[in-house]
Amino acid sequence: MPPAHLLRLHRHSLACVLVQGGTDRQRAETASAFHDASPLRSSPFLVLDCARDEARLSQALQAWLISENDLTPVDPLRESDGGTLFLDEISSLEVSTQRLLLMLARRLDGGSASDFRSAGPARLAAGSSEDLGEAVAQNRFSGALLDSLDKIRVDLGRRERGAA
User: Is 160 within a domain?
Assistant: First the structure.
């Protein structure tokens, strides 16, 4: 289904958005369009590249769990402050970080974002240049995490090798 049609259908939803294929810029722009069309549009939209910044995400998720869902002063969860946290290249996450992210995704999917004692994301969006279904089949990505993130899927198509 074309992204514009999905936007019209889901503009009031806070469900997770999964953007696959395309370039990193196309994925971020697509996730941002969902954010801008949602009730969260006046809240922050934060992009985090998991391939480059997994340690920061993992530390924030661990701190959130250890301190009973309270967030540290500076981390991507707090920076998203009731808005959208877009995690690109989630296929690069290690299994331990995938488990932590699954806990957060399930908390948000259950409609209990208000459980955060401090600011945190109200919506997760995720992106990957590769097909996450294939990564699950190869045991490189959690099927449960894919199920939690795959509420609204946008497929931007495969980028040809060498294309910018």
Answer: no
